[in-house]
Design brief:
Distance between the termini: 69 Å
Largest sheet: 7 strands, mixed
Number of strands: 11
Helix content: 55-70%
Strand content: 5-15%
Strand order of the largest sheet: 2-1-7-3-6-5-4
Radius of gyration: 32 Å
């Protein structure tokens, strides 16, 4: 029946002249579901899905009855009630299992989870970017007048495609000129829902996207998608599809969307696939040169509504290599005028002349700019101040700063051209903002700040991403260095803990030092190898945890991962236990001057013993962790600091839970394994004190090793709080420094990551760091 339904659906779709992507837009059913139904990979579709497809195809009469009959055996009409009464069980249908007759399920109940998640997402996005707009002082005293005009025709698709007109219908260009406050209306006037925003560096593209998101959300209806800003410069289209990448970024910035949604996929995937997310792709020009063409081709392979920002040259180069963005209407930002500067800059300064209260530091400068030059060309300063970025920098350096006089910017000997003026403003931005005292902030020295931010800027340049993620700060080191530092610090921490506890249990300081040294070296080696093979070799990141532990009040949508966790924990624990036991057995036998055969036998017996003990204990502990994990709330305010604090809490709770559970399992398991293997491997013996010591030390040591090597917060503590400050690349209070840089306007928050507020500033700092 699945094959018959797929064939009927494909024939009716092609009869209507629709692609799978166009049918997705009309029906709200994800293209992956449509493809699966047509190929027969998805069987027994839900009746609500079938009816949405039928409505989107505008089926009536025999065609509609044929589609419904192919989905439900024995269907002979009877209207909506009969169709709903015949709906198969949702869980079994999506899983491909047998259909079971169930009571009628309202379509609203089927769509409740993604629809509710979309509304929660809209609230979270609006709150986040409202705070960001306030932080950037965009409304102080009022937004700069960003304007745009239609881009050149060579970068524009056919207007018939943009306007979604049928074949043969006359088409005419749209009037897309506008101002910042009308960006949402301009977007809604484009029938295709695809808009490209072009502008040179510093022209206000990012501010425009921010205002678009807020205005669109303010006037959004429940049927419209939620605009979400994504930094497209971090996307590698040759490695991951657009939808998968959007899902990953949405899960990162809104951890609650990792919760299971309908069809056994995450809420993030359901939101993206159902068209409930409007991607605002910021920074196409920030992608690597070789990735822009495949990125544009990937965007053209889908009909997703979107907004894309780029510098004109980079977008034009990508278009020349492949084609324009299909059905997209491009606009280009225009320069600020002297009238704009006359209205804006004087209102950003304090009144300093008592005789003329309206006078300020900028009036003489702006008056001078209006005087004609001998050759008729505009003054270099007028050219520099034609972009919102440079106006913002000039305001920071000269407005409300008595010791700085903007009149010096007119000195052509000191600043002979546009480049010299721009570099002067960029170079003076950091010293200016860090010489200002901020309530509750530390007194960071500008010279050190320049070095630290230069390291971060170069770190992002080497990683080819604009996203400054706290869990990736250690990636500025070589993989071998990162692994070596991880192994050494882990060995030191576990060795100290083991030595202190062994000495306390045994009463022998020498014995504690020896045992701590052995255990520390082995643990450092083992955890270092685990980190190497898990992350360094594979190139993966240690991601922050998107879950929290909850024993009571668990949501129904939580997926229990007891099985996979049991397997992974058992194998990992057995591997560590065998290696540890073998080494301990060898050392004990050698200390007793035993022969080679007895040494090997003792090592193998200990390997089997500890392998079973640690394998069983780790499997049980990881299994329990999987049972108690639940995704975080989608409406939680996500910022880099909140993600760091949430991950710290999660890791500490795991440590407090895992250490006693694992330690108890090791202590009790040692006695059980002795009884199990008694006589099979010779005479084995243990006592309660030994089991208690083994369990206590193993629980705490294992939890510390897991935390330092396999969690994002552990790597943050190890690298960003110890190693990078120790080598002068970052301050000791790295989190406070990053937050302070955000408060001073150097960095901006984009979900769970920071970004440099100005790409020109990042590039300038990276070059300075490289020269240094």
């Amino acid at each position: 029946m699945a094959g018959e339904f797929g064939a009927v659906l494909r024939r009716l779709r092609e009869k209507a002249g629709l692609t799978q992507e166009e049918l997705e837009r009309r029906s709200g059913v994800s293209v992956s579901t449509i493809r699966g139904l047509e190929t027969g990979k998805r069987g027994n579709p839900r009746m609500t899905t079938v009816r949405r497809l039928a409505d989107a195809l505008a089926l009536g009469g025999e065609d509609r009855e044929e589609l419904l009959g192919a989905a439900v055996p024995g269907f002979r009409g009877g209207g909506a009630d009969a169709a709903e009464a015949s709906a198969p069980d949702a869980g079994a249908a999506e899983a491909g299992g047998p259909a079971v007759a169930t009571p009628a399920v309202p379509p609203s109940a089927v769509r409740a989870a993604p629809a509710e998640a979309a509304e929660q997402l809209a609230k979270a996005v609006a709150a986040r970017w409202q705070r960001e707009e306030e932080q950037r002082r965009i409304q102080d005293p009022y937004p700069l007048p960003v304007r745009w005009k239609p881009a050149c025709e060579t970068l524009t698709d056919h207007w018939a495609n943009i306007r979604r007109l049928p074949p043969g219908a006359p088409s005419a260009p749209l009037d897309l000129s506008g101002r910042l406050e009308g960006i949402a209306e301009t977007y809604r006037s484009v029938p295709s829902g695809r808009l490209v925003v072009l502008g040179r560096s510093g022209s206000g593209k990012t501010v425009l996207t921010l205002r678009f998101v807020l205005d669109h959300l303010r006037t959004r209806t429940p049927a419209e998608p939620v605009p979400v800003i994504f930094s497209i410069g971090a996307w590698d289209p040759t490695a991951v599809t657009l939808r998968d990448w959007l899902t990953e970024q949405l899960t990162r910035d809104h951890p609650g969307t990792a919760a299971p949604g309908p069809g056994k996929v995450s809420l993030a995937s359901a939101l993206v696939d159902s068209g409930r997310v409007l991607p605002v792709l910021d920074g196409f020009d920030e992608m690597a040169d070789g990735l822009r063409r495949p990125a544009l081709e990937a965007l053209n392979a889908t009909t997703l509504p979107l907004v894309l920002t780029s510098r004109p040259a980079e977008y034009a180069a990508a278009v020349a290599e492949t084609d324009v963005l299909t059905s997209a209407a491009p606009i280009e930002l225009t320069d600020l005028t002297l009238d704009d500067l006359d209205d804006y800059l004087p209102r950003t300064t304090r009144k300093t002349d008592r005789a003329d209260p309206a006078a300020g530091a900028w009036q003489p400068v702006l008056k001078k700019l209006r005087e004609p030059s001998p050759d008729g060309s505009p003054a270099p300063l007028a050219t520099v101040l034609s972009t919102p970025l440079m106006v913002a920098l000039a305001r920071t350096v000269y407005s409300d700063t008595p010791e700085h006089d903007p009149a010096e910017l007119l000195d052509t000997q000191l600043f002979p051209g546009v480049r010299a003026l721009e570099e002067h403003l960029l170079d003076n931005f950091l010293p200016t903002v860090y010489r200002r005292s901020r309530p509750g902030a530390r007194g960071w020295e500008p010279e050190r700040v320049q070095r630290w931010l230069g390291h971060l800027a170069r770190h992002l340049t080497e990683l080819k991403t604009p996203d400054l993620a706290w869990w990736r700060l250690g990636h500025g080191l070589r993989g071998s260095t990162r692994t070596l530092v991880t192994a050494l610090v882990t060995a030191l921490v576990i060795g100290l803990v083991d030595g202190a506890m062994s000495a306390a249990f045994s009463g022998s300081l020498a014995g504690g030092v020896l045992d701590g040294t052995i255990v520390g070296l082995l643990a450092g080696l083992m955890f270092g190898l685990v980190h190497w093979f898990t992350y360094t070799v594979t190139g993966k990141d240690v991601q922050p945890s998107a879950v929290r532990l909850r024993i009571r009040g668990r949501p129904d949508t939580t997926t229990w991962r007891a099985g996979p966790r049991l397997v992974i924990g058992t194998l990992g624990g057995a591997f560590f236990g065998c290696a540890y036991g073998f080494m301990v057995g060898l050392l004990r036998a050698l200390s007793q001057r035993a022969g080679p055969a007895l040494v090997l036998e003792n090592g193998l017996i200990n390997a089997i013993f500890f392998g079973l003990v640690f394998g069983g204990a780790a499997g049980l502990s990881f299994c329990l962790l999987g049972l108690l994990e639940t995704p975080r709330d989608i409406v939680s305010a996500v910022s880099p600091g909140s993600v760091l604090r949430a991950d710290r809490r999660t890791v500490l709770v795991r440590l407090c839970f895992w250490a006693p559970v694992f330690g108890t399992a090791v202590g009790l398991g040692a006695g059980l394994v002795v009884d199990l293997l008694q006589g099979h491997l010779g005479r084995l013996a243990t006592d309660p004190m030994t089991s208690l010591m083994l369990g206590t030390i193993s629980g705490l040591g294992g939890a510390l090793g897991y935390t330092l090597t396999l969690t994002a917060w552990g790597q943050w503590c190890l690298l960003a709080r110890i190693w990078l400050p120790l080598t002068g690349r970052l301050p000791w209070a790295a989190a406070a420094f990053l937050d302070d840089a955000y408060q001073r306007g150097v960095l901006r928050q984009a979900g769970a990551v920071y970004q440099f507020r100005h790409a020109r500033l990042q590039s300038r700092l990276a070059r300075s760091r490289r020269r240094g």
